[in-house]
Amino acid sequence: MSEQQEQSSSDTLASADTLTTDIAIVGGGMVGAALASLFACANPRWSITLIEAFPLPTEDAPAYQPSYDDRSTAIAHGSVALLQQVGVWETLSQYATPIEQVHVSDKGHVGGAVIDRHKVGVDALGYVVPNAWIGRVLIRHLQTLPNITLLSPAKVNKLTPVADGARLQIQAEGQESTLHTQLAVIADGAHSRLRASLGIDVDIQDYRQTAIIANIGLAQPHQGVAYERFTDEGPMAMLPLGGSVDGRTCALVWTQPTEQAEEVLSLPDEEFLTRLQQRFGFRLGQLTGVGKRDSYPLTLSVAKEQIRSSLVVMGNAAHFLHPVAGQGFNLAVRDCAALAATLAQAGDRPLGSLSLLQAYWQQQELDQQATIHFSDQLTKLFTSSKLPQAALRGLGFVGLECVPPAKQWLTLQTMGKASRQVML
Q1: Helix segments in 87-206, DSSP class H
Q2: Domains in the chain, ordered, with CATH?
């Protein structure tokens, strides 16, 4: 879809009394855009409307320039296969850094676990991609698809369930209009206003931790190695960036107790790097630079309902995980693929049919529970100084190397292949 077509879509919305669409997705972030791509791949005849509150990239947008202050995502091997199927991976791979190995260690305890792509028999365990590129490539792809309508910037003021679907009150260009859909998908983030307006409660567990995000310069190439390091303050991750194994930048996720995060954030660059080097060690050699630092509080948030008739909650609105082990986006992609595959079997049933959505949920419930439990327990076990957790920590990664089934399970979880794989 061209910029002119996109503008025309907004103009039509603002002038019509009621528009109709088969599927409406509220939220044009990485999950919403990936879901729209998967829907379009599953059935090109579906009409899909993606609604995003912020402006989306256009043909006239300036070229993206890499910089230190980009947040990045580890895309697991299983997610790459899905992105290949919808036709975006060839472009996205140009900005992706392959993960050759994953090193997992626990500060103060011997041993560790090493997952090597050669032993698994894959080209890469996963890839690290700046979020800015993920969003840009996905939106560019959607703009080429004839059955996708992008509404941006546009705001959903109200979502009302009706007998044959859902009705959305949308504000665009200062005017309100109505959009009727067979299926509405809420994918507008962990603090979803729409989810709350529908009375869908959320279980929230506060980890009392804050994630500090920054890109770190290195004196030597990272060689495509991703590090997960557990400390008494919380886990930290260093993910390889730069497009190849010769890159000299890593994406840092450094978990701090909330009460001391502000002090670490405010350190001068040299002191920040010294503190980080002390905690992380010299596995990547000398740390030479730090970009813009950002932070966000860490919680485990899980919606108590993810499906209703004509309604699905997806992405961070459905489950927001601790970033340790990089499970959040990859779980969401599997959810998206499972929903698209289930709806492709709808036959004559409406896309919002409760029986269809229940079939989707029955398929994904176990995957969600296992992945959320893995992320949550990994965080608690390896940040606790209390017994018996402390005793288990002393054996944890040594045991993984000594027990092949445990090592294999960790490998599959890391690659996003611990659950049943869904392809369209």
Answers
A1: 89-92, 117-120, 131-142, 193-197
A2: 3-62+136-203+300-389 (3.50.50.60), 72-130+207-298 (3.30.9.10)
